[in-house]
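Hi R.,

Here's the chain you asked about this morning:
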Amino acid sequence: MLAEIIVSRIVGGLMLRRVGEVLVAQQDFNDRMRDASRGRFEWDRYDEILFEVERLEKKCISAWEACQRGTREWRHKEGLIALDEALQESTRYYRHITSSEG
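And here is the predicted structure, written out as tokens:
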């Protein structure tokens, strides 16, 4: 879905920036998961983290699919705003769990 946004003609520079922010935050999270010296997440938090990541991904996908289906006018009034918010929420969550754990 993120790759689709990058190559799409229906988004502008702001969405490309948001996708980049999500990708960087995801990579920081993945690095944290692999770096034993930084401490790993508590095992009892894994399910919570995975469920929240899945919820946020579904929200992004839903917003993106709505943008693809919607008219140009709707996309600029509502769709891209919802997509922007969903991408930012994902970025915030990844940053939060990466910085607050361990």
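One quick note: Residues 39 and 81 are 36 Å apart (CA to CA).

Cheers,
M.
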